[in-house]
Amino acid sequence: xxxxxxVGNDRAKAQLAAAVDGRRLPHALLIEGPRxxxxxxxxxxxxxxxxxTEADRPCGRCAQCLKAATGHPDITVVQGDGSAKSMSVxxxxxLREQAAVVPNEASHKVFVFADAxxxxxxxQNALLKILEEPPSYMLFVLTVQSRTQLLPTVQSRCVxxxxxxxxxxxxxxxxxxxxPEAEEDDLLKRIRLFSGCIGAAADSMAxxxxxxxxxxxxxxxxxxxxxxELALLRATAPLExxxxxxxxxxxxxxxxxxxxxxxAAGGKTLVSVAPEAAVALSSKLTQKQLVASLAQxxxxxxxKKRNMNQTLLITLLCARLRAATGR
Length: 327
Ligand SMILES: [Zn+2]
Fold this sequence. Notes:
five-stranded parallel sheet, alpha/beta, Rossmann fold, 5 strands, binds zinc ion, 15 helices, Zinc Finger, Delta Prime, domain 3
């Protein structure tokens, strides 16, 4: 199970491998990255390295590594589900008591908080109490899409590692193996839509809603140049209650706008899921308007990462796209 089995993100892997090899395991590790970028996989890799008994850790073969893969008594995973309830202050206090008990069989005890973005201030403050003076055997791993969701005091206690999507080729190699029946073109579209995040692209293969996502990307892209000023509001209405759909649509529209610029420059290689909408945009908007629209979408993607209010985000998306396209 060496670090090499985790695809891409060489810098993050090198950083963790160096800490493990040098026996300088950070007491608190923060893994930040977009949805489906492998945060939890890397967290479990690190947890296995912490309990592994071989020299080359994680070896993937020793009894501790095998248990780490299926359920290790000294590795506890708490999975957030987006609600503050899933990582409540009560749960953190309970874990704090458990942390005071020495490991069952390994040299370390690891608590993984996956998708810790939903931990509220109260819960984070409870966590902070043990991050400040952890027992020597205790290790904590927090995975988040955006570290801005964590208190600065929590962040400052953690060693941070950032993950990004991997290259098209790296992602394609993994997905081809996992979905041998799928068409390469289809896989590539998904990889690009999810910016090389293998987990998100793979999830979309099992998601019946994926067709609806593409439909929404197309509808919003087309509405950008509609003469009816309510068209964009109507096209974005389904996003209001769906954060995941919003994320995918913002990323998808961004690619459509980039395709439109490519098309305006005479390029033929379009990579978005709605190339015909991109061609239409390129014929109706100037290059300057396309660049301005792209900049607005980029800015809103960044705001979304900082957890901007969903209703405000959709309102701004409509208003700014109208303004950028002179409508
Ligand atoms: Zn091992």
